[in-house]
Each structure stands twice: as C-alpha cells, then as structure tokens.
Amino acid sequence: MDTPTAPLCIRRVLLDSLHLDPANARTHGERNLDSIRSSLQRFRQAEPLVVQKSTGRVIGGNGRLVAMRSLGWSECDVVEVDVDDLTATALGIALNRTSELAEWDLSALGTLLESLHEENALEGVGFDESEIDELLASLDAELGDVLGVEEDGAPEPPDEANEPARRPVDPGPPPPALRRQLRLG
User: Are strands 58-60 and 49-52 parallel, antiparallel or unpaired?
Assistant: First the structure.
C-alpha cells in the first residue's frame, strides 16, 4: 500500500491567488452557497481548500471559495498538492464523488438535529426547520410502522382470528424524534 511521501502542510494564502476550477463539474446553487456561507460564518474555515500547487487551481472547495469571496474574506487556508492537470481533474471528481456516496444514518441524524434544536444551535448546519420537521416526521412514521401504531397514535388492533393473544411489550422510552413530536402536540 502506498503512503504519502510528505505530510500535508496547511498554509494561509490570499484568495486572489486562487482560481476556480473552470472544468469543475460540480455546481453550487444559491441554496448551497447560502448554506456554505452560514457554515463559514458560524464555524469559520474548518477545513482547508485543496489546491494544485503549480497553478493555484482549486481542486476541492470551489463552493467554499465562492462563499468566502462573497463574505469579503481576503485569505484562507489551503493544502497544496503537487499534481499534474490530469491528476488534479481526477482528484476533483474523486473528492466530490466520494462525498456524494456517503449516506446518513437517519435515526442518528434525527437525534443529533433534535439535540441541536433543543439548544438553539442549528445555525450553519445546512438543514432548515422544515427539513428537520420532515425528517423527524418520517422517522416517527417509521417508528409507528415498527411498533404497529397508526397515524392517530393508537395501536393497530390485532387480527384476533389469526393471531394468538400476546402480552404487552414495554418498548421503553420513545426516541427523541417521537418525544419532540409528543411535546409539540
């Protein structure tokens, strides 16, 4: 297995020395840029841009560069990689595609978002209230399906002709998403 020949080195550069990748196949709509700006305003720059050393071409972080410029920033942190143009193009695609292939654990995400909501700490995370409500409602509906609860909150009646009598099972405390819905009524 190959290992890096040298450790990555983060350095601060002027934004004017960086160039958006003209071949970048990833687009950044206004909603995406708003989310990036909000994140930058709350958390500042938490990860460096990836830049081709010989050209100043941004390989990873074109959306962040646009957002930083729109916020009036004059400098940022970068990691420079010494690669040719072909490798820079391939790396740019790989950075975007590998991120895109990741999936959310929706139950864990719902719990985390609810926790942040309770602390009034959702600013900059990229989800708006309606998306969070939709996610939590979806999780609650899934939970209802698993527990055999209809939309009105009542358990589904057993089909007594085909099912033996069952003892009630204590499902334990409801998950945070369901607790939130019960609180909001």
Answer: antiparallel
Percent of the chain with pLDDT over 90: 51
Whole-model pTM over 0.90: no
Q: How much is the pLDDT for 66?
A: 98
Return d(Cα 139, Cα 99) in angstroms, integer: 24
Task: Give the Å distances, CA to CA, from 136 to 3, 132, 145, 150, 156.
Answer: 42, 6, 14, 16, 22
pLDDT tens readout for residues 70-125: 999 999 999 999 999 999 999 999 999 998 899 989 889 988 988 998 899 999 99
Comparing CA positions, the residue from 90, 93, 79, 54 lying closest to residue 4 is: 79
- Domain 10-100, CATH class in plain words: alpha beta
User: Any idea what the Cα angle at residue 170 is, between residues 167 and 176, rounded to 5°?
Assistant: 150
| Nearest residue to 171 via CA among 131, 144, 137 | 144
- The domain spans of the chain are 10-100, 106-184
**Cβ atoms 10, 48 nearer than 8 A:** yes
